[in-house]
Design goal:
Elements (H helix, E strand, L loop, with lengths): L1 E3 L4 E5 L19 H5 L21 H17 L8 E2 L2 E2 L5 H13 L4 H18 L19 E6 L5 E6 L6 H8 L2 H19 L12 E6 L9 H14 L4 E9 L3 H8 L5 H4 L2 E5 L3 H5 L30 E5 L4 E9 L4 E8 L4 E9 L7 E9 L6 E6 L4 E8 L7 E11 L4
């Protein structure tokens, strides 16, 4: 048996070719901070991820780094081994230590005294909290694993991605079970730190490496009032003890009342943290996430191709992205399929709300086209299609997505593999 994904392929559109589809550009307008961010998948251009090459620092920043090292050494003169994080000695003087120290300096705008205070306080918290051994604990939140908060895949730049979704807590029974009293809340916060520590474990902590995470937070069905205390504590805890560990915070399915929600936790955030925000209103999740994460790494519930069952099967097969303009129909033609071969495909359109169909067209004259999947309207919240077909004769597979009834451009992705018959 042989696998191949290199069959000739063409994309046809009812109005224009796929290659000619232009990227949409948002029109400039003046709005408040929250309203501007809620305009779609736009990013704040003021934020640029920092590098950690000491040679590229400004002279004042180099001076601050050296001063922090000296003050930290003096603070831990009697117990130097206590000055370590994630197994990295902060007094070791190597590149990994510099990465961590620069995170604290940047979080305090290179004010050495403030950075030292934050760092010492964080070291004390990690010791008291037991953060260094938390990955070994079984906290008993099996029903939350892979649902509420979980690490999954990487973005296009190699950052690990942490997904957060609190809609499950709209169920009062579930809410009481997790947040019903102070002890339960403490246990949940401990579990939430455990999830974050899993992501940090795969960071490089070196100049030029991947030194931060991406956070995707789904606000759909989030009970805004009930989670106020938990949200504030999580944000405060992370900002105080994990400075500059998040490269970007992507909020999806943002409800209309986000302005109120934002005003609730805004006082807990620095301006630098706010500059990392990407906020997408409800229905634009796929369009937003495709800008940062490849479709094969995005969970199916957010318009991607990643399913929980894919996890044991190794790295996901690469997907091809395309866009469908409003008023267009796009045909994906997968040619060169031999007799007896089996083709398996995945296809998804962000916020479907259009018609999809699949047919096999034999090469031989006089042969009938086979309707593999009859035309049907795909709902906005439907997940990716996954299907396969074994051909009795050579031909091509045509996957059609019909967006002629809409004026809205949509992002989409597909992938396929053809397995030739083992019989000769």
């Amino acid at each position: 048996m042989m696998d191949t994904a290199s069959s000739p392929l063409s994309l046809q559109s009812q109005k224009t070719s796929f290659q000619d589809l232009p990227e949409a550009s948002p029109k400039p307008y003046k709005k408040g901070f929250v309203a501007t961010l809620m305009g779609g998948a736009s990013t704040n251009p003021s934020f640029k991820e920092d590098n950690y090459f000491v040679s590229l620092l400004r002279s004042s920043e180099k001076k601050a780094l050296q001063e922090l090292k000296e003050k930290l050494k003096a603070s831990f003169e009697d117990s130097p081994s206590d000055a370590s994080m994630w197994g990295i000695p902060l007094l070791g003087g190597d590149d990994k230590a510099d990465v961590i120290l620069l995170n604290f300096l940047r979080a305090r705008d290179f004010r050495v005294g403030d950075a030292l205070h934050m760092l010492v306080k964080c070291l004390a918290w990690r010791k008291e909290f037991g953060a260094d051994t938390i990955l070994e604990e079984d906290l008993g939140f099996k029903e939350l694993e892979g649902v509420i908060a979980y690490m999954q895949g990487y973005d296009k730049e190699g950052h690990p991605v942490c997904y957060n979704a609190y809609g499950m807590f709209k169920d009062k029974e579930m809410y009481e079970r997790v947040f019903g009293d102070e002890e339960k809340l403490k246990k949940f916060l401990r579990w939430r730190v455990q999830v974050l520590e899993r992501g940090i474990k795969v960071l490089h902590f070196k100049p030029g490496g991947v030194n931060s995470l991406i956070q995707v937070t789904d606000l759909k069905d989030m009970p805004k009032r009930e989670l106020r205390v938990a949200s504030n504590q999580i944000l405060s805890l992370f900002q105080d003890n994990y400075p500059e560990m998040v490269a970007r915070k992507i909020f999806i399915n943002v409800p209309w009342y986000f302005s109120m929600l934002y005003s609730m936790f805004s006082p807990f955030l620095t301006q630098r943290t706010k500059s990392k925000f990407v906020i997408s209103k409800e229905g634009n999740a796929a369009e937003t996430l495709y800008k940062f994460i490849r479709p094969e790494d995005i969970p199916v519930q957010y318009g991607g191709l990643k399913r929980p069952s894919d996890l044991p099967n190794g790295p996901p097969k690469p997907a091809s992205e395309f866009t469908i303009k409003g008023g267009e129909k796009v045909n994906i033609q997968i040619e060169g399929i031999e007799a007896g071969a089996t083709i398996t495909w995945d296809i998804v359109v962000g916020g479907w709300d259009l018609e999809y169909s699949a047919e096999f067209v034999p090469n031989a004259e006089g042969s009938y086209t086979i309707a593999v999947e009859k035309p049907r309207k795909m709902g906005a919240s439907e997940e990716a299609i996954h299907n396969s077909f074994t051909s009795k004769e050579s031909g091509k597979m045509v996957l059609s997505v019909d967006n002629t009834a809409s004026r809205r451009k949509k992002v989409a992705a597909y992938r396929y593999v053809v397995r030739k018959s083992s019989t000769i």
